[in-house]
Amino acid sequence: MRKMLLSFAVVFLISANGFAQNIPSDPSVKTGTLSNGMKYYIKKNTLPEKKVDFRLAINAGSILEDENQRGLAHFMEHMNFNGTKNFPDNKLVDFLQSIGVKFGQHLNAYTSFDETVYMLPVPLDKPGNLDAGLKVMEDWAFNATLSDEQINKERGVVLEELRLGLGADKRMMDKYLPKLLYNSQYANRLPIGTKDVLQNFKPDVIRKFHQDWYRPDLMAIVVVGDINVDEVEKKIKDNFSKYKNPSKPRERKNFELPNHKQTLVAIETDPDATNSMVRFVMKDAEAYQPDITVEQYNQSLIENLTTTMLNNRLRELINSNNPPFTFGSVYHGGTYARSKEAFQGFAMTKEGDQLNGLNVLLTEVERAKRFGFTQSELDRAKSQVLSNLERSYNNRDKTESDMLVDEYVRNFLEHEPMPGVSWEYEENKKFLPGVTLAQTNEIIKKMVKDDSRVIIMTGPKKDNVAMPTEAMVLNTFESVKIADLKPYEEKATIKNLIKPFKSEGKIAKTETDEKLGTITWILSNGAKVTFKKTDFKDDEIVFTARSLGGSSLISDADYNKTQFAFQALTEAGVSGYSKADLTNYLAGKQVSVNPSIGNLTEGISGRTTRKDLGTTMELVYAYFTGLNYSPDAFNAYKTKQSAMLNNLLSNPQFYFSSEHAKFMNQKNPRFIGIVPLDKDWANTDYKKAYDIYKEKFANAGNFHFYFVGNVDANTLKNEVVQYIASLPSTGKASAFKDTGYRQINGDYSKVYKKGKDPKSMVTIAYSGEAPYNEKEALALEALGEVATIKVIEKLREDESGIYGGGARGGMYKVPYSNYSFSINFPCGPENADKLTKSALAELQKLIDKGPEQKDLDKYKEGEFNDHKTSLKDNSYWLNALTKNQLDGSDKYEILNYEEKVKALTVKDLQDVAKKYLSKGKIVATLMPEDGWENTKKEETQPAVIKAGASN
């Protein structure tokens, strides 16, 4: 939401002559407007190196469609990938893949109500790539061929995307949208459009949309990357200035979301709904206007502080032992309509409990409105806002290009200011201390409205679950106004997370690895600490700690009693403090610490900054030594999880995954389901899970800690000696074990039936035990990427039978050597059998002839592109360093990866295809329940608010 993003600073400055100052624009961004009205934004940014990010923003979306064009703004976006002047037919995707750009993952676009945006990252490792990227943007803007043949081929793809939106959410959305978007054009112009139009429109109709709205005065090009700004500006002027606007351009109207005196209530249920939710919307009286002056920005920040404090109160309730809902929040920000903002609240509740959820949301709003906030709440909110901004400021010179381009797109489309993080941070530091309780208390009073309100409740339709009436909903507003409320009670804050102590631990040995650039300390308690200092970010530290064993060492009976309890353990808090206490203590600190027990390991992972490293290490120590035991907290966790998960099996896709997982794991007594049901919770032993955790974390000597980032070695050493070297250790080493259980394999064909909508899902899988071979592992992974290219080409582009899909393959060393390969795609049930045969035929070609060299080259270029970028990422290095501990793999693999990819041949991929894809396969298909052929097939309002071309 525009005003609620933490990076939007607000500052109140009055110049010497008394006039409010305008928010400045970032001087490092070169902007301009061509003679035809097209705007451009250009910025040099060297992260990642030798790469550039392009955006083409068009101030036109589905809201501008004529009645016979519904869905064609989005269809037009698709067509730009299916034939342009310089890249006819499907040559665009083919060319971009050849230079390392992956379709869907890198190359993409989206269409929403008011805009269409195309996204293209291009590696600059080869001469001509910059010009090629600009040529693609030029073609997207002006040179779509829009041939009858390609338009008619793409109908099936877009109809498959429409199909993906069918289901319970769509059916309920159909009913509540007319109230949410009351009396507005938005209710009738969802981007995906209508089935009737998509099936039957004449090609000239989409050509007219393109002619009307794809014009220079409605466009902006954004170029950010490792470039010469002046050179790019010249190229844009030379290549884009020649295009003209229509002699009589259609007016680009702005559409309103009207206000209304009455409160509109929508209460919708569906048998296939998976969760229960409530939402309130209180629309602003005036139309949205972007911030222009510093004083306006100031007001936005006060709004942000106000909703931050409200959300902190809601979070306390959620983290309590009697949570009113699973999740809940409020904010002031944008609606679907660009012209309107609103004060909004949302909660996910237990089934049938939506009215109570609404009551809690409104009660907390009323409490704040009636009594205001406390000074400590305001101080905490200020700290949170400034801490987030400080992190961005500290990393200002190491910000990735893809994090910058969208800000410039918003400047063009929504006139959002772009002063740059340095200005924002400095002005926030000046302004934040002066914000008063009187200001925030006044804001909450202005946000709450008695008119232009909309209430939406959705949930499962069940005979034993009663939904409230509209009268009951409306009465909630009145009852909250006269409720006997008390002011918010501030809880005591944590002074020290752990009691100060003197560590008796020390570093016993130091090892250095020059190749990896790491230093390892072996501590007196047996724990190991490996760290790698990097400059990828100026202020980021990521870390993990691992011990081998995990739940593999637990008996089958105990595992089935504890597997769902492990994730609940941290709900109890640490060191005698509750989770809510801990959340307040960490407010304003960049600290994330997450302990876990997995199948093969137990450990702790997270991220922090240099300033907050000490607090992070305290919390790590606390999770090792002071995890609380609280059955009440566990029961509260069960309540929230049940509210989220109990109805998931109503969703056909989830049902398919769950039932097929049961089939695959039928010989494994440790498999009792993907998510816990009521019977599983009844069998869960929280105390046993807690005892297992305490036992595992009592042996720090079995843990290896890893830190990657811009960490000072001496500071880290002091923290390691204080907190990690002092952890208890039993001196016993442990390792995970193979439980011996295997998924079934062989030749099977399974059909699962669920749902009334004409939607299917197909999974084709090969798996089994095999001696691990490093070269074959990489070849199988490459084969998955190549097979994805062929599946998209055949099933999407040639047969127009799917919207998306793909394949993946690999080999794994732990807990036993095995391989897997799978193809997955959604489709229409009438096409499931045909498309399955087509997919298998593509695999057979790979077996018989191997892949084409050009497809293998596409895979290689994509991997080289990704790997070069990832080598400047702290998390990528962290994962690489920890892999060796788990599976004994080559610890220098990250350094040799490109060489190994480069060495792959067509024969290598064909060999693994013959070896592993000629064995038994399991084909699983989701089909709708019997009778789906007779259901209504005219789907006019799919639940898709933002539609995309490729993913």
Summarize the structure.
This protein has 951 residues and is of the alpha+beta class.
Defining key terms:
alpha+beta, single chain, Cytochrome Bc1 Complex, Chain A, domain 1, 4 domains, 24 strands
Fold topology:
Layout lengths: L29 E4 L5 E6 L6 E8 L13 H8 L11 H8 L9 E4 L4 E8 L5 H14 L5 H17 L3 H13 L14 H6 L2 H11 L5 E7 L3 H12 L23 E7 L5 E8 L10 H25 L8 E8 L6 E9 L4 H18 L3 H20 L6 H14 L6 H11 L5 H11 L5 E8 L9 H12 L25 E7 L4 E6 L4 E6 L7 E8 L7 H7 L16 H8 L4 E7 L3 E8 L4 H13 L5 H15 L6 H13 L13 H5 L3 H11 L6 E7 L3 H12 L23 E6 L6 E10 L4 H25 L7 E7 L5 E10 L4 H18 L3 H18 L3 H14 L5 H11 L2 H11 L5 E6 L19 E2 L3
Helix pairs in contact: 1-7, 9-11, 9-14, 9-17, 10-14, 10-15, 11-13, 18-23, 24-25, 24-26, 24-29, 25-29, 26-28
Helix fraction by DSSP (H/I, runs of at least 4):
40-55%
Shape, please?
A: globular
* Beta-strand fraction estimate: 15-25%
Which structural class should the secondary elements be placed in? alpha+beta
Cα(first) to Cα(last) distance is 23 Å
Low-confidence sequence ranges: 1-18, 936-944
State the total count of DSSP E strands.
24
CATH homologous superfamily assignment of the largest domain: Metalloenzyme, LuxS/M16 peptidase-like
The average pLDDT score comes to 94
Largest sheet: 7 strands, mixed
Count of discrete structural domains: 4
* Radius of gyration over C-alpha positions, nearest whole angstrom: 29 Å
- CATH class of the largest domain, named Alpha Beta
CATH topology of the largest domain: Cytochrome Bc1 Complex, Chain A, domain 1
Tell me what the CATH architecture of the largest domain is.
2-Layer Sandwich
- Kindly report the oligomeric state of this protein: single chain
Major beta sheet, strand line-up: 1-2-6-3-5-4-24
